[in-house]
Amino acid sequence: VGTKAQYAFQYTLFFLLLPECTADHVQQQPGGVIATEGGLVTLSCQYNTSANNAYLYWFKQEENDFPKYMLSRYSFGSGDNATGFKERFDARLDADSKSVPLTIQRVQLSDSAVYYCALQPTVRGNL
C-alpha cells in the first residue's frame, strides 16, 4: 500500500530595510510547515507599508545555495513568476488584509527549502 511522504517546509521572511523605512515590515507565523507529497501548502506573509503600491516578493533558498527569485506581486499590477515557478506556485496580494500568502500545489520533495517573503523598501535615499 503506497503512503505519501511528508515534507517539512521552513520559511523565513526577508526584508531589505533602510533607516528611513522603519514602519515598513513583513511578518510570518513562527516555525516550519509540514506538507504531504502531492498536497497543497500555504506559507503566510503579512506586511505593513506606508506606500500606496506595495511590492512583495517570494524567494526560495535550497540548502547551500543562494535565494532564488520566485515571484512578485504588487498592489497595482499583477507581478510575475520566474521560470521554473509558473506551474505550481502562486501568491495573491490582498491589500485589505495586507497579506501575500504563497501557495504550492502538488508538493514535491524538491520543494523542501527555506522560503523568504520580501517587501521592497519605499524610501531609497542616496545609493
From TrEMBL:
Record SUPFAM superfamilies: Immunoglobulin (SSF48726)
Keyword Signal: yes
Biological processes per GO annotation: adaptive immune response
Recorded coiled-coil stretches: none
Pfam assignment, any one: V-set
Keywords, comma-separated and alphabetical: Adaptive immunity, Immunity, Immunoglobulin domain, Receptor, Signal, T cell receptor
Keyword presence, Signal: yes
Annotated Ig-like domain residues: 19-127
Signal peptide start-end: 1-23
SMART domains, A to Z: IG, IGv
A Gene Ontology cellular-component term: T cell receptor complex
PANTHER family recorded: T CELL RECEPTOR ALPHA VARIABLE 16, T-CELL RECEPTOR ALPHA CHAIN V REGION
Protein name: Ig-like domain-containing protein
Species of the source: Oncorhynchus mykiss
